Model the fold of this input.
Amino acid sequence: MATWTYRNMARGIAVMTLLVALVAVTDEAATEVEPGVPTYHAPQQITPRARIGGTLRGGDGDDPAVAALVPDHVGFTVKQHPALNWFLSKYTAFPIRFTLIDERSIRALVEQPIAPPKQAGVHAVKLEDFGFALQANVQYRWYISVIKDTDSPSRDIVTGGMIERCEFSECLVLGAMTACTRETLMMSAEKGFWYDAMACLSDLIESDPADTGLRKQRAALLKQVGLHDVAEWDLVHTHTRR
Done:
């Protein structure tokens, strides 16, 4: 009887080991990223639920949808004046406002109107245009607000995320890149500098809009942080250009 029990226990352990191995292989395959595209490695210590809206945020009918191109945690940058990328689904005549808040205070550090983009797509807010530099090791929240009714803020279409700049010397130790090339954007994503990778990739696309490979790279990077709607838009845009 004891022999039968131990034998069955051994079989059970063997089956469990095989299942664990299969699950590991399945997980690895599911998270495998296509060669030639940026692979974003999030920081080990992350703040969850930092992004406003996991999908395109907008109203019904003629309202535009907006999305901050950020992960759902604090994204990092090496730059004092980074570019903050966001997406607009269609042209709008509604006023658009940019807001930047220091997490240590509820008071806005920057609250300025920005010109509504003339077309749909990915756009950027550059802090240098506002004369504002990020301090190191401080977390900031930023928002893009499409203002439908100035008398009713609750109707605003809002998206946003969080950003933190690491000390320059610490960033270099972590492998931060300051130049923007196809190679450095890959390294920025791999080292966890989301804002630098996304801004660089978007700049490269703006310089060469017909390069479908760059658009596929951006779509792949967006999908890795759950922004599938914007990624699909980029892929459709690529197909249209073809």
